[in-house]
Amino acid sequence: MPRPENPATGADDPTLSPASGPTTSPWLRILARSAAAGTATAVVLAAVALLVSSPAAGLSVLFGAALVMTFFGISLLIGHFTGRTNPSGALGLFAVTYAIKVVGFGAVLFLFGTPGWLERTWFFWGALATVIVWQVAEVVAFSRLRTPLYNDTPGPTGSIPAFRPPEGH
User: Fold this and answer.
1) What's the pLDDT at 129?
2) CA angle, 133 as apex, 128 and 134 as ends, to 5°?
3) What is the pTM of this model?
4) In sequence order, what are the residues at sequence separation of 6 or more whose Cβ sits closer than 8 angstroms to the Cβ of residue 144?
């Protein structure tokens, strides 16, 4: 049991490590990791397409990957900007944004049509590989977030109590 002369908070002990708080606005970090993984995948697949088929095949892979990364990137940017001001409303905005993106990308493809240089098979494989790698990177990045489970109130010094590692470790 702590005594008044030795409070349990340990706020004055310089050997304590401060408790870490929640991750602040994780969306940009998730976007960066997912985009890096998607870009790396697209570049490797485009190089293979270029060597195996043609320059148009390489461009088709990059075009498919760019569409996928734009599609998913918009959602993460929406999460970043709305998550700060209205975290509980972010899910609703994701749903609305998804519908707008599907209609918007469909309209763009319908209005502009398929470019003459596009090789559909390589476009498909580039888009598919990017979707899979993007989603894996996003799930991994999301799983590493620090999300508080309890609404801890700040201690007497204005911070969450510090963690003290066990002696001898």
Assistant:
1) 97
2) 95
3) 0.69
4) none
